[in-house]
Amino acid sequence: MAAGRSASAAIMILGVGTDLLDIRRIERTLERFAGRFLERVFTLQEQARCEGHINRCARYAQRYAAKEACAKALGTGFRQGVAWRDIEVVVLPSGKPLIRLQAGALARLAAMTPAGMVAKLDVSLTDEYPLAHAIVLIWAESATAQPRAIP
């Protein structure tokens, strides 16, 4: 049972996706098609976060892998109304990455979430040159689940 959840909370895995990407592929793509590629795949916030990082290509590769993994977890890939920019990787001040969905990706999440449940997404990102990896877990819990106090 997850910490902070009551014993009666119903939890269900809705989807899992993973992606492994060669960072050098992103390096080559950025050299050849930087503007078009970035505009098609990444939100302005993602671009600002990656451009400000010393390992810019690795950060883009992590986000690209996260978007691929999320599309797999949604069960559609980039079809059925799910687009690259519908999936955004944001980072909390603590450094924890989160996925924010909008448009077609958000509609797909709503369609796959059982009635009476609330969907949650978790993402893990890593890289070790020349590889970047992401895993996305989509899960749902009962909308009436009450957190319990942790002693």
From TrEMBL:
Mg(2+) binds at residues 19, 68. GO terms for biological process: fatty acid biosynthetic process. Transfers the 4'-phosphopantetheine moiety from coenzyme A to a Ser of acyl-carrier-protein. It is an enzyme of class 2 (transferase). InterPro entries: 4-PPantetheinyl_Trfase_dom, 4-PPantetheinyl_Trfase_dom_sf, ACPS, Ppantetheine-prot_Trfase_dom. It catalyses: apo-[ACP] + CoA = holo-[ACP] + adenosine 3',5'-bisphosphate + H(+). This is Holo-[acyl-carrier-protein] synthase. Its cofactor is Mg(2+). The gene is acpS. It holds the Pfam family ACPS. It is found in: Cytoplasm. GO terms for molecular function: holo-[acyl-carrier-protein] synthase activity; magnesium ion binding. One of its GO terms (cellular component) is cytoplasm. Its EC number is 2.7.8.7. Residues 15-106 form the 4'-phosphopantetheinyl transferase domain. SUPFAM superfamilies: 4'-phosphopantetheinyl transferase. Belongs to the P-Pant transferase superfamily. AcpS family. It comes from Candidatus Defluviicoccus seviourii. Transmembrane segments: none annotated. Keywords: Cytoplasm, Fatty acid biosynthesis, Fatty acid metabolism, Lipid biosynthesis, Lipid metabolism, Magnesium, Metal-binding, Transferase. The keyword Lipid biosynthesis applies.
